[in-house]
Write a structure and sequence with these properties.
This protein is of the alpha/beta class. It is built from eleven helices and seven strands. α8 runs antiparallel to α10. The longest helix has 21 residues. It holds the Pfam family Ubie_methyltran.
Length: about 270
């Protein structure tokens, strides 16, 4: 069954999954936090690091920039960015204190500092036009996408870049059917392997249902453009099972004037 049109999608998702988002997600992530990254590598048949490398390759950085990692989880992105450019100021926000505690320990073990905020990412506690780069990965299917993307647009500086990565709904119905079939097999196996608790095991049906009601890569690109982002680029991996996005906040004076398609990467002239 196809989800409703894009304009109605988030309202539909909220009505269907709002109770899970409000009441269950915290318990799920308390459960999976200690083994989150390892379990994803197993469930993805070892492709997890490849997804991460493709995502990181889209992110351009300049020395001294201010970065916000939304739904930062175990700080994998913030750590990778600081390894590439140690002069960055990196902020992380996530609703899960358990995931962020794992992330704090990982960063400190490497001698890195990431400022952490625990809170609702739909209402970002930062001023307008504050960050040069904002990232969001592996979380948007659990969120009100339009509301969050607008908040990210608000706190992003004009000319700043937003980078997104998540599991998406494939546009091809054959790929979609195979995808969900694989997840129905792999999620219970991974849960048993890591001895997941009741909260995570009970959420397996939700994870698939949430994807069925989610967006394709192309649809998320349309959402970003509708909010006012410029230079929106979307990449589909594995037939649309995973999508990557890059978008720019336009500068004053018009919707998208004066924004270069690509900033020079760190070290280039």
């Amino acid at each position: 069954m196809s989800p409703p049109p894009i304009a109605e999608r988030d309202e539909f998702r909220l009505s269907r999954f709002g109770s899970v988002w409000k009441n269950d997600l915290d318990d799920i992530f308390v459960d999976v936090a200690p083994y989150y990254d390892r379990a994803n590598r197993i469930a993805s048949l070892g492709l997890w690091d490849w997804f991460s490398r493709r995502f990181m390759a889209m992110i351009d950085l300049q020395p001294g920039e201010r970065v916000l990692d939304v739904c930062a989880g175990t700080n994998a992105v913030g750590i990778a960015l600081l390894k590439r450019e140690p002069t960055l100021t990196v902020h992380a926000i996530d609703r899960s204190a358990a995931m962020q505690e794992v992330g704090r320990q990982r960063a400190e073990a490497l001698g890195l500092h990431i400022d952490s905020t625990i809170g609702d990412v739909h209402v970002l506690p930062f001023p307008d036009n504050h960050f040069d780069v904002i990232t969001l990965q592996w979380a948007s299917r659990h969120l009100r996408v339009h509301d969050l993307f607008r908040e990210i647009h608000r706190v992003l500086k004009p000319g700043g870049h937003f980078h997104h990565c998540d599991m998406l709904r494939p546009g091809n119905p054959v790929v979609e059917k195979l995808y969900y079939g694989y997840l129905r097999l792999s999620l219970p196996v991974t849960g048993l392997l890591y001895r997941s608790g009741r909260a995570a095991m009970n959420a397996q049906t939700y994870f698939i249902d949430a994807l069925e009601a989610f967006y394709t890569t192309e649809e998320l690109s349309e959402v970003l453009r509708g909010i006012g982002y410029c230079e929106v680029e979307g990449q589909s991996l594995l037939g649309g099972m995973v999508g990557l996005h890059r978008a720019v906040k336009g500068r004053p004076g018009g919707p998208c004037p004066g924004v270069a398609k690509h900033r020079p990467k760190h070290g280039s002239r």
